[in-house]
Amino acid sequence: MGESLESNHQQRIVLVADDSESSRDLLRIILQRAGCSVVEARDGQEALDQAWACSPNMLILDLNMPGPDGYEVARRLREMPAFASTPILALSAAASEANEARLTEAGFSMFVEKPIAPAKLRACIGQLLSGHC
After folding, report:
1. What residue ranges define each of the domains in the chain, with the CATH number in brackets?
2. What gap in Å lies between CA 26 and CA 8, rounded to an integer?
3. Which spans in the chain are helix H?
4. Could you read off the pLDDT of 30-58 as tens digits, one per residue?
5. Calpha distance 40→34 (Å, rounded)
6. Cis amide linkage into residue 115, ω under 30° from 0
């Protein structure tokens, strides 16, 4: 039903890190319908551990999760050559908290405000995975 984000028959791995189970569930459904394989993390430290374990094609990070927050997770990943160009999408329900300078400094590729509109999320993910951002 959903448009596939796969290219060249290669499965895309997306790491979703959010302390909200309902947000992770929604993201998983949207991403799986788009043909992605999803790895989940409940906090910042688990996100870092999972990133090393699965080498995702993209990360979606909640900005306000426990442990290292999304900003810190993005900063740490960007310091590592393996993640220097991996797309990282920031999510937050508090748009005022997600100022552009702070997002750029942390190394995010794009920001999406919660609640997430599935069509908008698919479009953003498609852009990031195809390298058009």
Report:
1. 12-130 (3.40.50.2300)
2. 26
3. 21-33, 44-54, 70-78, 100-106, 118-130
4. 899 888 899 999 999 999 999 999 999 99
5. 16
6. yes
